[in-house]
Amino acid sequence: MQASYSAVRRQFEATIDAGRALTHWEFYQAYRNASDGADEESASETTEDALRALTEAYEQAAYSPDGVQIEEATRTVERARQLCTRADGGTAAADSDSVRADSGGEPRERGSDR
Description:
The chain is mainly α. It has helices spanning 2-12, 24-35, 41-63, 70-88, 96-103. This is DUF4129 domain-containing protein.
């Protein structure tokens, strides 16, 4: 999941001219601010909602001792694929193999101490 978030963040960095390192929520807010005047309002709203959901899932996976349920991890990886495709018009950079490799294994289930 963390690799999925990282892939999306890399795709969206060109949209955000922060000039400094941002936390995950600062990054989300910077994207919202940058997309406020977007012409494709409905597409931006969908992207913004998906980025918010991805940010929330990333925070849960990265900082909660309970991790996330496998179903949520699966939805998050798929959401990241869609966001990467929207951001660059090409193939999504976040595939399940890179997520497993970068996150240290399979997604953890809630209550799992793996």
